[in-house]
TrEMBL record:
Organism expressing this protein natively: Sparus aurata
GO biological process: protein homooligomerization
Gene3D superfamilies to which the protein is assigned, alphabetical: Potassium Channel Kv1.1, Chain A
Protein name: Potassium channel tetramerization domain containing 14
Domain of life from the UniProt record: Eukaryota
């Protein structure tokens, strides 16, 4: 079957039309379109001997979700950058290593804001990604036979806030062991901005969550701290 594939590719060069099956989605294009960017994965797959198997109809088969391959192909044909499903197309552009498309997508407002704004901020919040994983792990452990899991988070915006941490934790009546602490960070975004990020990143994994301030009992003898929030997972 390898020789047959080679003949198919040579015939495609003679009349350079290639039939593709990308995860069940059929596409037709010129061979030169697939080879447009020589250092891309597509150019590599369609240069020299074919490196792909064919399906029962003789189309070259790529075992990948083809839902957004049309947008990738449209860019190769016309340099047209999609305006919808930016993150999904970006993921495909990374997979196929189409550098001009990656660059153009990363300059769009949505990805620019995500990569340059939000991700740069979160990289300055110590242990942010690990904390998100811990929150999900605790919530799942506490989900047995209940509708909601509630986890306490402590947000310390500044080094000064960090100085009050021991006193604040000491005044907390909830289970102190499972409090997840964020901060401090050296960047402009506020506590609300961080909480928005926590909610966004947990919900992007399919969970339903809400965040509300934890109101502590007022006492004449001790200071009240507003560092605590309740993160509530809703399971059903």
């Amino acid at each position: 079957t390898g020789d047959g594939g080679a003949e198919k590719l040579h015939s495609a060069e003679a009349s350079p039309v290639v039939q593709l099956n990308v995860g069940g989605h059929p596409f037709t294009t010129f061979l030169s379109t697939l080879r447009k960017h020589p250092d891309s994965k597509l150019a590599e797959l369609f240069s020299g001997q074919p490196k792909l198997r064919t399906d029962t109809q003789g189309r070259y088969f790529l075992d990948r979700d083809g839902s957004h391959f049309g947008a990738v192909l449209e860019f190769l044909r016309s340099d047209c950058v999609p305006t919808e499903n930016i993150q999904e197309v970006h993921r495909e552009a990374l997979y196929y290593n189409i550098k001009p498309l990656i660059k153009r997508l990363e300059e769009t407002p949505r990805l620019f804001g995500e990569l340059v704004g939000r991700q740069q901020f979160l990289s300055r919040v110590p242990h942010y990604k690990e904390n998100i994983e811990v929150l999900i792990r605790i919530a799942r452990a506490e989900a047995i036979a209940t509708r909601h899991s509630t986890i306490m988070i402590c947000v310390l915006r500044t080094e000064e806030d960090l100085g009050f941490y021991d006193n604040a934790i000491g005044s907390l009546e909830a289970d102190k062991e499972s409090v997840v602490t964020f901060g401090p960070w050296k960047a402009v975004p506020s506590v609300k901005d961080l909480l928005d990020c926590v909610k966004t990143d947990i919900e992007s994994q399919g969970y339903r969550v809400s965040i509300e301030p934890h109101v502590m009992e007022k006492s004449f003898l001790s200071r009240s701290y507003d560092y605590f929030y309740k993160l509530i997972f809703t399971w059903w």
